[in-house]
Specification:
Strand content: 25-35%
Number of helices: 7
Strand order of the largest sheet: 4-5-6-7-8-9
Order of helices and strands: EEHEHEEEEHEHEEEEHEEEEEHEEH
Shape: globular
Helix content: 10-25%
Largest sheet: 6 strands, mixed
Bound molecules: zinc ion
């Protein structure tokens, strides 16, 4: 039996004779159940109507994005290092072409994901490339799998110069990936929805729910900015195609956090 994939968010559920009665990710207040109800698909059906497009963002960084848009519409990023490739965030579609292209680039050493909205089919990607996947919010994993290595703590270096930073906020385990060699050695963070690159590409924001426009507390945003302040980075690659801060990323985080806190009425330190 095929696994079941939620059409609205891309989360995969175990292979059962009938689709689940609901999608826990969509039913959570940070997402939404479509007005016409929950619709389910399978990997074969998804691959029948969609393809993955690739874009090279810088020397060792590729974007993989599904067309036409599927689920939340995020991109996955494939990061090349001398010690192996890392997949950052995940997408539901892993078709034959994508599998072959990733293999041709050397396969994957590890998968890391910013938060549960992008867990999607991480189990299938991990199995295909024989690597571990590192989610930080175990409660939101809908398909248990031996490849899953849940992690705790504030940081996790998954490869030399590639470090996961737990920032929280949007989810308790909300994570960004710090890539020391990114941006020609000036450093980059891959940030998912945890540090959301805004429409003005010199700004970022931090929300509890993006579709339902629910904010985080000012104190949380202050803590996120303080946690990022010791890390050196120039670029920020956000969750969606085109959403990247190409220079001055660390300053953009601090400036955006300061303005967020001002607009929310400030906070006691
Ligand atoms: Zn869903
Ligand atoms: Zn999200």
């Amino acid at each position: 039996m095929p696994i079941q994939i939620c059409n609205a968010c891309g989360t995969s559920y175990p292979d059962t004779p009938a689709p689940p009665s609901g999608c826990l990710i969509c039913e959570d207040e940070r997402q939404f159940v479509p007005r016409d109800g929950q619709v389910w698909t399978t990997p074969a059906k998804l691959a029948g109507g969609h393809v993955n497009a690739w874009r090279r963002l810088e020397t060792d960084l590729f974007e993989i994005h599904t067309h036409p848009g599927f689920g939340i519409g995020q991109r996955a990023l494939l990061l090349r290092t001398p010690r192996g490739n890392i997949l950052w965030d995940c997408i539901a579609l892993l078709d034959d072409a994508t599998e072959m292209l990733v293999r041709a680039l050397g396969g994957l050493q590890a998968i890391a994901i910013s938060h549960p909205h992008y867990y999607t089919c991480m189990q299938d990607w991990a199995r295909a490339f024989g690597c571990a996947v590192h989610p930080a919010d175990a409660d939101w994993v809908m398909r248990p799998d031996p490849a899953i290595r849940q992690w705790d703590g504030e940081t996790l270096e998954i490869s030399a110069g590639v470090t996961l930073l737990r920032l929280g906020g949007h989810f308790p385990g909300g994570t960004v990936l710090h890539w020391a060699d990114g941006a020609d050695g000036r450093g980059a963070i891959l940030s998912g929805d945890i540090v959301q690159v805004a429409a003005d590409l010199d700004r970022v924001s931090f929300l509890w729910s993006y579709p339902n426009m629910m904010p985080l507390a000012a104190a949380t945003v202050l803590r996120i900015a303080a946690t990022l302040s010791p890390w050196r980075f120039d670029r920020i690659y956000g969750a969606f195609p085109g959403r990247q801060v190409m220079a001055g990323g660390a300053g953009a985080v601090q400036r955006s956090a300061k303005r967020y806190i001002e607009l929310s009425g400030g906070t006691q330190r």
